[in-house]
Amino acid sequence: MRGQLILFSLLLLGAVHAQEPATTQQAEDAVRRVVRHSGLVPNFIVRPNADVRTAIAFVKDRQRVIEFNPAFIALVMDSTRSDWGAVSILAHEIAHHLLGHTIDPAAVRPGDELACDRYSGFVLFGMGATLTESLAAMSLTGDPHGTRRHPPKHARLEAIRQGWEEARRVREGLPPEPVHDPDGLRYVLSFVDDANTYYADSLGRVLWFDASAQAIEFGEMRDTGGGTFAVRWMDEDYLVDARMAIWRRSTHGMPLQVGKLEKFAR
Ligand SMILES: [Zn+2]
Fold first, then answer.
1. CA 104 to ligand 1 centroid distance, Å
2. Are 49 and 55 in contact (CB under 8 A)?
3. For residue 209, what are the β-bridge partners?
4. Average of pLDDT values for 197-207?
5. What pTM was estimated for this model as a whole?
């Protein structure tokens, strides 16, 4: 399986090499279109970089840069048989700039990823993409388990869907989707180096709320008795002790306090 995958990747890279200028052209064009639909001045530098795994947004010399892996973008366009996949990936990166995430690149804030996914769904609706087209790239490349920086695929697909749906409701003059029932919220989770706030509800789901108070689920919290909890959040396991401190085991086995839990009070 792995051998096949590597062979496939090599074939792909070989094939892509020839079309690299075309891919770059399409990526630049996609960014221009997204920027135009956002009403922004197109002051982004867009360029290929084979060392980037997928795509990345950063600021360098006060310039807003987006770099993408041309093989990755070509794979997405080939597999989804349209360029909407590439557009959604680049819209996500543009959102990192717009939302100020590139100011402190070292910070790990999973809610940031969901906010950018939501933006990509929102802007793709405005550009004429169907919901399926807006979800295509994430369906193809999303990580089902998530990583320390990226929430799991189901949460990201949900964020894109909510953005797309919200744009549709705006277009049709409908009110926002009904907000999540605040009566169900039990706890607030906060993590060091993470500006987002997360909530655990009565069903043990760990939730993040987007700008229009829509809940996106991407973790779970289980009562383990005696005022302690087990939290599965992103791809890692955490413990909450009786003093409501959240702990994570480091790779060396030393527990590390990474956040705190509080009772939710309205
Ligand atoms: Zn991102």
1. 13
2. no
3. 215
4. 92
5. 0.81
